[in-house]
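[Automated response] Your request has been received and processed.

Submitted sequence:
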Amino acid sequence: MLKRGIGLGLLCFAGHAYSANITVTTTEDVVKADDQCSLREAVEYVNQGMPEAGYNGCGGKEATNTIILNGKSEYKLNNQIAIYKTVQIKSSYEANVTENNILGKNNAVIKMVGKDRLFLVDHTLAPPITNADGTIVDNSSLILVQFNEVSLVGCGQSSCVDQGGLIYNKDALSIQYGQLLKGNARQGGAIYNSGIYDKNKALSSVSLTNTLIKTNKANQGAVIYSEIPQFIVSQSVVQDNEVIDAEAALFDVRDGFDEETSKNAGIVLSRGIWNSTIFNNKGYIVKVFDGMLVNNVTMIMNTMGLIFNAPFNQAYVANSILAKNGVEDCKIIAGGDATHISNNLYSVGCAGTGSQTLGQVNLIAGSSTEGKCDTSSDGILCPFKDYADTPLGYFKPRLLSTAKQLSDSLIVNHGPQSNKDLVSCEAADQRGKARSVNSELCDIGAIELVVNTSTGSNIGSDLFYGETGKMSIADQLQDGELISADQCQALLGNNPNGQPWQAGCMKIVQTNTISKGITTIDQEGNVIYVPNGNWHGSDEFKLLVITSTTRFSDSKNPYIEIPTRIVQSPKNNFENKKVKTSGGSAGVITLISLFGLMGFRRFKK
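Generated structure:
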């Protein structure tokens, strides 16, 4: 059977950049003695111990146990691949030197086209190794299997396999900047984590970081079914998954720890879910057993909430937004000590210590759970949205125009009281943004609102005579929204220029030129510039606005300054086409430089 190869130029580049790694050179699932390396062959080569002679076009002398896939390519599997040696599988891709690449946006895809799971991770499958004296080498140590910037897609059928729709794991499994999609099984729609507690042995575990977990389904454990509480989910999004059994959860656990183990585990709290967004799922979300922590989570708009079952009082649910999850956000079975369920914003059932009820407050600022934020609404969260500068989307908290001070918010600056023995906020949010070092001033939920009056970027437009400049400052607003013109009047009084206030209390401050046009702005941050004639040259100024976050800034100046440059010129009669650049014209020298850079690319490792 012929193998479909990846572009030769890219492979030569990849081979040079990753000379010691194992580069997969075909997207097809085949095993054949030739010079093409499939994913199955690459894993088998690692399983064999990476002999210097290589294996079917994979590896060779000085090879490492890192397997390289081509970003955005789709690799098909007909049936599962067994992994029984430590390995890392990751994507690589080209990127322009000027691009701000966001991890997780260029993943290679591994897709099951048969009816099976993708991977079986089990170190016990390794053939026994015999010592010189005839004894068998100990093979009890766990292996580490890592997926980095890889999307895993299940078979898409009603039931791909009985356990572990994407992965069946008996070792240490780590997924970073990945995607777990369309897994389907009776137990563990995406992942089944096998292994019972043994005091003297390492425990199998699952770690998911910056990972999108979507459209997985199972009778029990649509995302993870774990025989004991041995999983971590952080800075991830859990969306549109479904668990079928009435008492099951997306993150399901078969057996809790005994009392001694629970108390030891409770000291570390290295199991559970934190800094993550969970929404639009069907069924209970997670069974919180002793030794587990749910912290700084935004868990909203699911059909059911979480189950708290910690008879030894060694589990915690804290600093989270747990609202609109069916009839109750928290179902307490055992161990619901008031200090262990603390500082949450909830609808029903998660009272504990220092928590607040949502009551009649509008949760979402918009008509749907996902999409555009209605800035005229009084909802305290913008709908879920994917942003270009972050790996995953989120619900952005809002500071409403009715707020007189930050303490009026139900989310912002609502950390736990320091004089009580409560779980503190995580050090960084879902995006990796640092939270306040003062634990009482952190924000609950997955996202920490960041206040920054320096934007670090400019806007601009190149115009021909008779044209109007159209720009946007939406990206410069960061976590804030432009305050309304009515707010400006209340905060600042009359506009010094005698005109009615515009959105954001916009002001124009000229820098290198006199004013040569009129600038207007709307509530969404769309800017229109109209020249006051056919002048040839530039109009340079700073556009100043106030946002919902900067108006509460510790700085005495609540304005964001956005450098703006408008360039206007007559049409070039010798050329029918025109080149537009954001931020103003840079002239012939800049264009020559840009053409020179077109060939200069770097390879992302």
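Summary generated for your ticket: Residues 70-94+102-126+141-357 form one domain. The chain has five helices and 43 strands.
If you did not submit this request, please reply to this message.
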